[in-house]
Amino acid sequence: MSSARILYLGIEKALKGESSIEEKRKKIEDLFVRSLTTLPKGMGKDLYGYYLTRTGKTVENLRNLAYHLVDVVELFNEAYDTKKDPLDEGEWTVIRDLVNAYAEDIEEDILTYVMALVVEKGYLG
Fold this sequence. Notes:
Elements: H1 3-15, H2 21-35, H3 41-52, H4 59-76, H5 89-101, H6 108-121
Helix pairs in contact: 1-2, 1-4, 2-3, 2-4, 3-5, 5-6
């Protein structure tokens, strides 16, 4: 089972219960970072931090964010849906910058795949 699928299946479980929104955010972060098995852990945390700045403070906002993060995981699993193309310019810019910052610690095939999409989308800089 792919790591994106594992994240997808874990989202509702992470959001259930009486835990606080902060605890739910932490659960989603843990799922997301663990789903990015091929990336440096710090990069996953940095990506999640960026996405948290783009969401509101309700469970529904967190749910929408979490399902969007599945697309981000698919990007780093070299399975990005270029037809659906769910990432916007701001996301591509942050991803480009983080990939550049962590380039030495990212597997070469993933680095090449992601940066080729960045160039194709016109967000090289």
